Amino acid sequence: MSMDILGFSFNRVGAMLLRHWFLLSGSWVRLIDLVYWPAVQMIMWGFLSRFLAGQTSYIAQAFGLLLAGMILWDSLFRVQLSVAISFLEEMWSRNLGNLFVSPLRPSEFAASLLVMGVTRTLLGMVPVSLMAWWFFDFSIYSMGLALAGFFASLTMFGWAIGLAVSGLVMRQGLGAENIAWAAAFLFLPISAVYYPVSVLPGWLQMVAWCFPPAYVFEGVRALLVDGTFRADLMLGALGLNALYMALGFLAFMALFESARRRGQLLGQGE
What we know:
This protein is mainly alpha-helical. Helix content is about 75%, strand content about 0%. It starts with a strand and ends in a 9-residue tail after the last helix. The mean pLDDT is about 80.
């Protein structure tokens, strides 16, 4: 039965709603995305609130720690996102097929994504770090040479995530595009950015120590609070990053090969 009022059709609205419902219910990526952001925010702020509730002496030092944590975390996120965006721009312009009928090798394509990832990040984060110095009289460069190690470690982990995400989007298509924007935040609650790993439940602490960011941000905290450079944490982060870089590259190459065999490189687009 038609339901039209002054030319406005509720049937057509219902048809569009049904279309989007089928699109949503048929994609596990889209369904997970609905829960993902609220869950990450709730968990991260919950652990931070629990930590601050019992640490009144920490409040006096919190300003610099939180600002440093924000800048360094955003560096990791920007590296991962910049790698993914550089890749997505080729998909949005339907250029993947053109690239891979040329002599360009997948490993060379991946290398270019990594270089663009860190270039975009530096172009964005260096001015932000100078603004923090100007507006809030806080210089992240006060960490000295240790800052280079922290940034390099976070960059490597961002590269690893960016490569794996790019491969997944290449294999799954643009329906998985949201993963590019959300992947790094999966690690935020266990990265000790704003609170120490010790705040987490025991089983989650073991998970946190499996990933480099926890080592980096515990190292940042030790340097800013105690004035101590923890070489053991830096080496632990770099060792894990070597592993995750290898896994990220292998994932990208395997997913590329799967997409190539299925003929998806020529069919990608907006």
